[in-house]
Design goal:
The protein is an alpha+beta fold. It contains twelve helices and 14 strands. The radius of gyration is 21 Å and the shape is globular. It starts with a strand and ends with a strand. The relative contact order is 0.16.
């Protein structure tokens, strides 16, 4: 039975079938967390995603006997290639059955698409930007995922190695126990930071005020803080507007920490939210007819896990204790909201500054994921 590869037209119907294959592929798996289908379609749609201002892509589906058996999206991020002086083809949104013929056909289609456009290497799984889920799971297959990360079966990395891909970067993730109170070390450091730098925390009192006062500054800060991280490309103004609504529209205000200096300039921000993993599993990634209810209950109700989505500190204040100041605000709120654990989400394995912030917490590293690379 031969494998047929078909490019996907960026229409709503075809993209929906593409996204839904990824969800159906993991049916019955207790650790997979589906994306919200409407959001995934928007990410893949040139008409919706502002990353297409500087990116091109083509998605492919693999079929056997007219039955879908795999998918992959080839992406060229021109802004990243210009920044790095490379000709890198990204691959993402990749899923496939455990069949070498299927896998080889999918990657051959993506690679040929990239070669025709002058690309000389392929890297992934990555999205259009660093805000998209990235990294193939290589450890922690028995752990439930998060809405911000990729889940895949254990046979995926075996196929990557078989095809000659090598490690380009690894991310690790921690499950962190929320302490019963603020650690004394954090209290002492926070007080020093307040006095030395004249910093203070601004409680978020409304989503509108948060968006109006700090929305754009927040993502400008992320551009500064993340600029040297693997695969990062500075967010454009259109992308910032897009992510302001995506992130700030659904959060609990008490799960956000904003730190400013004496002139009210933004110095640091921490954005977290209740875990939506179980709600997304219950909804199957659909808002209707009842998916919205599961998501609403998770956001407004009680859950014992909080997802740490974004933590950004202005470069000149990094490694100076600002994170401890944020934790003195967030930990009491986490306790009040009933959180028992926090999911760190992805951190580059070599980013010691980020990992040091967990040294006074009880934690375990429970997942590792990888970006693979190969010459074209």
């Amino acid at each position: 039975m031969s494998v047929t590869i078909k490019p996907i037209k960026p229409t709503k119907d075809e993209l929906r079938r593409y996204v839904e294959f990824g969800i159906e592929h993991y049916k019955g798996n207790g650790c997979y967390v589906p994306p919200l289908i409407v959001d995934e379609i928007a990410t893949l749609s040139p008409a919706k995603n502002p990353a297409f201002d500087f990116s091109t892509s083509c998605s492919f589906m693999a079929y056997r006997d007219d039955r879908p058996v795999g998918r992959i999206t080839a992406i060229i991020n021109d802004a990243y290639n210009k920044k790095t002086g490379t000709k890198t083809l990204r691959f993402g949104f990749v899923d496939f059955i455990d069949d070498a013929e299927v896998v080889d056909a999918l990657f051959a289609a993506a690679e040929e698409w990239g070669r025709k456009r002058g690309m000389t290497e392929i890297v992934g799984p990555m999205g259009f930007t660093d805000m998209d889920p990235e990294g193939m799971l290589i450890e922690g297959f028995g752990e439930m995922g998060t809405m911000a990360t990729i889940y895949n079966y254990p046979y995926y990395p075996k196929h990557m190695e078989r095809m000659g891909f090598e490690k380009d970067a690894d991310w690790i993730e921690y499950r962190i126990k929320i302490p019963d109170g603020i650690p004394d070390k954090h209290k002492r450091i926070a007080e020093i930071v307040r006095k030395k730098f004249g910093l203070r925390i601004v409680p978020a009192t409304s989503r509108k005020k948060l968006k109006d006062s700090y929305g754009r500054a927040l993502f400008k800060l992320i551009n500064e803080a993340y600029s040297d991280l693997y695969g990062y490309v500075e967010l454009t103004d259109r992308q910032i507007d897009y992510y302001i609504d995506a992130y700030l529209g659904v959060i609990r205000l008490e799960d956000v920490c904003v730190v400013v200096d004496s002139d009210d300039n933004l110095v640091a921000v921490g954005i977290s939210m209740p875990s939506l993993s179980k709600a997304l599993r219950a909804s199957g990634g659909k808002l209707f007819p009842t998916g919205w209810w599961h998501l609403w209950k998770a956001i407004r109700g009680k859950t014992d896990v909080v997802d740490l989505l974004l933590i950004a500190v202005k470069p000149e204040y990094q490694s100076k204790g600002v994170n401890a100041l944020m934790f003195t605000y967030l930990i009491p709120n986490y306790i009040a909201n009933g959180y028992k654990y926090a999911e760190s989400n992805v951190e580059l394995e070599g980013n010691e500054n980020v990992q040091k912030q967990w040294e006074y917490f009880e934690r375990r590293q429970h997942r590792r994921r990888r970006a693979w690379k190969k010459k074209l």
